[in-house]
Amino acid sequence: MTLIATLEHADADLTACLARVMAAVLKPGDVVALEGAVGAGKTHFARAFIRARQGDLAEDVPSPTFTLVQTYDDPMGTEIWHADLYRLTHPDELAELGLDEAMREAVVLIEWPDHGGPLPDPLTLGLEPIPDFPDLRQITLAGSEPRWGGMARLPAIARLLHRAGWGEARVIPLAGDASARRYFRLVDGVRSAVLMDAAPGTTGEYVAMTQWLRTRDFHAPEILAADQVEGLLLLEDLGDDLVARVLAAEPQLAPRIYDRMTDLLVDLHRHAPPDFVLRLDGPELARQVGLFAELYPAAAGAPGKGLDVARTIEALHAELAADVTPVLGLRDFHAENLIWRDEAPLGVLDFQDAVAVHPAYDLVSGLQDARRDVDPAIEEAQIARYIAATGVDADRFRAAYALLGAQRGLRIMGIFTRLAQRDGKPRYLAFMPRVWAAIRRDLAHPALAPLAAALDGIPEPSPDVIERIARG
């Protein structure tokens, strides 16, 4: 058993906050061994954990000292078992209580675990009083590193929430994305916020871009509290009305929504990009698209193909786009990263990888969306809308749009291949046919004939090819 993390000087509120955070991440089959002397706070921790899992359906959580076991259901259909083994006379009684089976199918919290004999790979949470400070505890988390190493983040999260005045909030996981970041919604009465949990020391770009955007009246979420050393940000909650969801529920709003997206880019491009963002010029675009040639052709059964793609894109960028002053590109500008707020400005998310790039880059990102079909008439209308609003040369802009669309699409094909084969995330392969179709449309532009030639012989992502990639 390895010491994973320590939470120092935890009072009752911080202890309960840690329980609420842990309640957001444990799953069926997880066993928590609660260790500590009488009065150390084991039942206090378990009570906060169970009530957090139950949410609005929370019920009384009595100590199981005399019943030995209490069971609860949460709204997701998971059973939670709370056991107190202090009065257990023999480990064999675990089977009589049903705990041996519960430890395979439920979330199980066990006080006095040593009375029950060895447990199946538990997370051990120890509560130890601090001398001369009777109301404070040192809390330790220990367990096998492969299974429980991810719990090392929880004390830092609890400290931030407690310090920021969100210690009593319920913590609810939100759907993740293709990155290593994870998100949680905090609900405390009528107020809510979002917690971003990123890798330690990686939030500097997000904070800098947030400040840049907000000082120019673009609605990035306000940062409510931060622990940048740990990679934690507490953010304004812009709600659940992702543009993607609104489009799915009310497709008739698509022309209005895409008008707003284009107008946001027109406004954004009136500001010179900050000097701290990456310059996404021809050489960098070529470097990034190298991921496609490195991974997709071989995975699709055509090793050695596509080797000229990167240098062809660099050459085409020099010919078609290099003379245009770069603007700020949010880079992941699409319906999953924008919040619909009716007449209020669109909320923007996931902009920490912003770049200085050709003005067509984000327009392509929004209109050639890997996750959903965009009506070709809407795509054409938005290109024309941007050209009219900015006065750019229409023919050169359309050629650059096609080039950047092809570059983005090819890079995405490489990313989806890597997500499937290296990271075990094959669900993104389902988007490949849509991305490839957009690439083929872009390649139809006469200026991209050299790139079409460089892609000759590379198979499309047919069902057989996608299955081959998924098998690795």
From TrEMBL:
It comes from Paracoccus litorisediminis. Belongs to the TsaE family. Its main location: cytoplasm. NCBIfam families: T6A_YjeE (TIGR00150). GO terms for biological process: tRNA threonylcarbamoyladenosine modification. InterPro entries: Aminoglycoside_PTrfase, Kinase-like_dom_sf, P-loop_NTPase, T6A_TsaE. Keywords: ATP-binding, Cytoplasm, Magnesium, Metal-binding, Nucleotide-binding, Transferase, tRNA processing. It is found in: Cytoplasm. PANTHER family: TRNA THREONYLCARBAMOYLADENOSINE BIOSYNTHESIS PROTEIN TSAE. Residues 171-390 form the Aminoglycoside phosphotransferase domain. GO terms for molecular function: ATP binding; metal ion binding; transferase activity. GO terms for cellular component: cytoplasm. This is tRNA threonylcarbamoyladenosine biosynthesis protein TsaE. Gene3D superfamilies: 3.90.1200.10, P-loop containing nucleotide triphosphate hydrolases (3.40.50.300), Phosphorylase Kinase, domain 1 (3.30.200.20). It comes from the Bacteria.
